[in-house]
Amino acid sequence: MFPARRAFRAAPALSASPFRSYHASRSLLVQVNDAIPDVELMENSPGNKVSIAKELKGKGVIIGVPAAFSPSCSESHIPGYINSSKLKDAGQVFVVSVNDAFVMGQWGKSLDPDGKSGAAFTKALELDFDGTAIFGQPRSKRYALVVDDGKVKSVHVEPDNTGVKESTADKVLQ
C-alpha cells in the first residue's frame, strides 16, 4: 500500500547549486489519511499475533521506538505518555519496536503499558532505518501516529530517527 505511492511521486527539481544536500534518512511515505497497514505483530511472545489495523477501533496513538530499554525510550519518551494527563483521551495506545517479542514483553512489564513489537509493521509504514552501526540491525525510527478509524490523522517523526523532540507526548497528545 505505501510502497506503491513512490512510483507516483514527481522527481525533485534539480537545484542550480553545485552542492547537494545530504539526508541520513529517506523521505517519509506515511502521510495523513493513509490507512494503517494490516500486518501481524507479535505481542509478548511469537505465538501471540495481533494486527493494529484490526485492533485499533476509533481513536488511538501508535508510538514507534528504536530500542526498548534504551535510556531515551525508557526514561523519557514512553514515560512521557504514561504520565500524561491527556493519555486518557487518546484512545488505544500501541508501542511498536523492532525488537523481539520477548524483549518487548519484558519492557512492557517494566513500564506497565502493552508492548507491541513489529518489524513488518514498521517497514510497511516505511518508518525503519539502518541502525546496524548502533543497534546491530535495522530499527524503527522514533515516531508517533495519531489515528482515528484506521486512518492516520497526524504524523510525528524524529528527523534524526532517534531524538526525542517531535514525537513527545506534549506534542502528540493535544
Keywords:
174 residues; 22% strand; 24% helix; five-stranded mixed beta sheet; 6 helices
Characterization of the model:
- With 174 residues, the protein is of the alpha/beta class.
- It is built from 6 helices and 9 strands.
- The protein has helices at 52-55, 71-82, 101-111, 119-124, 132-135, 169-172, and strands spanning 40-42, 49-51, 59-65, 92-97, 115-117, 128-129, 139-140, 143-148, 151-157.
- Helix 2 (71-82) links the parallel strand 3 and strand 4.
- The model is unreliable at 1-23 and 113-117 (pLDDT under 50).
- One of its GO terms (molecular function) is thioredoxin peroxidase activity.
- The active site is at 73 (cysteine sulfenic acid (-soh) intermediate).
- Pfam families: Redoxin.
- Residues 30-174 form the Thioredoxin domain.
- Belongs to the peroxiredoxin family. Prx5 subfamily.
